[in-house]
Amino acid sequence: MLRGEILVSATVKFLKQCASRAITTQRLVGACCARMMVLCAAIVSGCASSAKQTQVAVREPPALMAGRRQVETETAARAAKISASPSTAIRTVGHEELAEDTAAPAGDGSELFNGQVELSLTGLVEEVRRRNPSLQAALSAYGAAIERCPQVSALEDPMLQTMAAPSSFWPDNQKSYVLGVGQKIPWGDKRELRGQAAQWNAVAASYDHADLQLRLAEAAQLAFFDYYLVFRQRELNDANLQAVGAFHDTAKSKFESNQVTQQDVLQAEVELARIEQRRVELDQSHEVAVARINLLLHREPQHPLPPPPRQLGAPAGRPDVGELRRAAIEQRPDLAAIAARLQSEQSALALANQEYYPDFEVMGKYDTFWTDAAQRAQIALNLNVPIYQEKRHAAVREAMFRVNRLQAEYEREVDVVKNEVQTAHARLEASRRTRELFEGKLLPATEGNVAAAASGYTAGTVDFLRLVQAQREFIELNEKYQQALVEQHRNRAELDRVVGTPK
User: Fold this and answer.
1) SS3 content of the chain, % helix, strand, coil (to 5)
2) CB 203, CB 340: distance < 8 Å
3) What is the CA radius of gyration of the chain?
4) Is 116 left (phi over 0), alpha (psi -120 to 50) or beta?
5) Which CATH number fits the domain that encloses residue 403?
6) I need a surface site. Which of 8, 227, 305, 401 has the fewest CB within 10 A?
7) Is the pTM of this model over 0.85?
């Protein structure tokens, strides 16, 4: 900005010369205005030169934001479809609409599921999304981010200037006062760039809300499957208690007829005690599962729930892992949130480059201190002189580093997402094969083993210990089968979440 400093010095020198030579007021003002116009032109030219020198090459933002389908949530329904252009606007939300969306559900939730015969997985996920306070907090954060947009892009309030001579208030004195108004106007696209940065932050907040919806849906599904599993385990425990009770009666009858020793009866009683001890563990697991679901529903932990379905079918379909990886890159809302914040930082970088240009203040006033009435109405144009370049260079470099950091974070997160999809897919395939192994081989074999052992004990060819062992193995394998079935559903829920597929 050396040229600007030289011109300022020359202008000051010129004014002194004019004063010493007693040049007329009209010539002085005219010459000063001409010099100031030249000075402003030089300043703007110098700023443009400096800004041009500090432009940086930034990698293009990821193509994730281009052509993205609208997120299927109530927040994304308020936003326009996101495109790669940073000028994309989002619809602001009125206070009444936002208050309606973020209002906490009425009541303590004790009336939920009244009259339902069984707990529905789809209904549970919907209720969790409706009642969970975390989603309400995320929605409020999104609303707050939206309200930043009109604040940062608005003009500053105009300034009213007043001044009066104290003697004007005395009678018979000349009334001398000044009334003026001024408005600051930022250079070029500064207001638009501030608005764009805030808009992209609001878009990122909406994707944060969508990501939380996915995670809560996964949490609700996992809690539902735990609840289902403990019910099936308790049913198996009841069936085991009934079967071993029948074995006990048979052993007692044989002992009374001197066909077996008392050890068979004692062994049956030991097995019955083990089954009762297992029931205590399952009752505890049931209470924990109910409390976990109620936590997600924002209810008291002791509120009862309807029983789960009698049977879970196996998850349908065997998706291709390559297609899933590509879908995850396009659908994951946490990736979209990083991309939106990257767009915001790029707008901030463009704004930092705009700071090399001056801001203006347009003023108009009426000054009765002038005795000539023709000179009382006045206009003025003020502007800052951005001659201190180092702080602006540093601001541009800082913004550039922020852009590069978010770009690197996005690329790292893409790698993490691909790994998560691959891992979840491998777990799903392993659990599917395990379930099919139970259904095809293990369960039929153990059922036949129990039937053969029971017939052999009645006939006296098999001892009671082998019968109890066969029954115990039958129950354990059935519990493991239920665990394998539930694990397959869990892995499918995890895969849906890491791919970004809404439930």
Assistant:
1) 70, 5, 25
2) yes
3) 39
4) beta
5) 1.20.1600.10
6) 401
7) no
Is residue 49 assigned to a domain? Answer: no
Interhelix angle for 190-256 vs 121-131, to 10°? 140
Q: What is the pLDDT of residues 165-186, one digit of tens each?
A: 888 778 777 788 899 999 999 9
Q: Are 324 and 420 in contact (CB under 8 A)?
A: no
How deeply is 305 buried, as exposed, middle or buried, from its count of CB atoms within 10 A (0-12, 13-18, 19+)? buried
Q: Given its phi and psi angles, is residue 462 left (phi above 0), alpha (psi -120 to 50 degrees) or beta?
A: beta
User: Is residue 65 within 8 Å of 81, Cβ to Cβ?
Assistant: no
Q: What is the Cα–Cα distance from 120 to 97, expressed in whole angstroms? A: 30
The DSSP line for 273-305 is: HHHHHHHHHHHHHHHHHHHHHHHHTTS-TT---
Residue whose pair of structure tokens reads 């619809």 in the numeric block: 91
Distance CA 481, CA 314 (A): 12
Residue identified by tokens 């493991």 is: 480
pLDDT digits (tens, 9 = 90+) for 207-255: 999 999 999 999 999 999 999 999 999 999 999 999 889 888 888 888 8
Q: How far apart are CA 322 and CA 111, in angstroms?
A: 45
Look up residue 316 and give its two tokens: 């349908």
C-beta neighbour count of 85 within 10 angstroms? 10
107: left (phi over 0), alpha (psi -120 to 50) or beta: left
Please tell me the least confidently modeled range out of 314-323, 343-352, 449-458. Answer: 314-323
In contact, 456 and 471? CB cutoff 8 Å: no
368 inside domain: yes
- Reading the block at residue 292, the tokens are 């976990």
Distance CA 476, CA 306 (A): 26
Backbone torsions φ then ψ of 105, nearest 5 degrees: -60, 145
* Residue range of the domain that includes 408: 54-499
Query: Is the residue at 44 inside a domain?
Result: no
CA 395 distance to own-chain centroid = 29
Is residue 73 a contact partner of residue 139, using CB atoms and an 8 Å limit?
A: no
Give dist(CA 478, CA 464) in Å, integer.
Answer: 21
- Look at the chain and report how many structural domains it folds into: 1
